[in-house]
Amino acid sequence: MGVKGTVGYAPPEYGMGHEVWTQGDVYSYGILLLEMFTGKRPTDDMFHGSSNLHNFVKAALPEQVVEIVDPVLVQEILEGEMSAKNLPNEDSVRIRIKFEKILISILEIGVACSAEFPGERLDVSDAIAEMCRIRNNL
């Protein structure tokens, strides 16, 4: 037998022979969220030793969210602000703060789903509910 899953996305317990299960899928989902929003793969060269994508994001939240998010996402929101030049400065600041809060919330879900130990991971139904809440607040 071998490890089931793709390196970086398979949960740690699969490497110890654990059967495939929902909590493993939750881990993979969390890593995928972190990858999509940071633009960094879990196998990136910057992660070595005990460093990994999960710990990288967790250490940066919430204060450094803009620094770790994929620059393309940040650029898109800035371009959106520029195209809405008629907005008063307070509205522009409000949009930026809302954008940061949304990013923090999404990345917190990714971190909660990709916890090393299965018992510490967010339940899949709670992750879905949180993502829906974020979408509905847009």
UniProtKB/TrEMBL annotation:
GO terms for cellular component: membrane. PROSITE patterns: PROTEIN_KINASE_DOM. Gene3D superfamilies: Transferase(Phosphotransferase) domain 1. GO terms for molecular function: ATP binding; protein kinase activity. Signal peptide: none annotated. SUPFAM superfamilies: Protein kinase-like (PK-like). Residues 1-134 form the Protein kinase domain. It comes from the Eukaryota. Pfam families: PK_Tyr_Ser-Thr (PF07714). PANTHER family: LEUCINE-RICH REPEAT RECEPTOR PROTEIN KINASE EMS1, PROTEIN KINASE DOMAIN-CONTAINING PROTEIN. This is Probable LRR receptor-like serine/threonine-protein kinase At3g47570. It comes from Prunus avium (Cherry). The gene is LOC110770664.
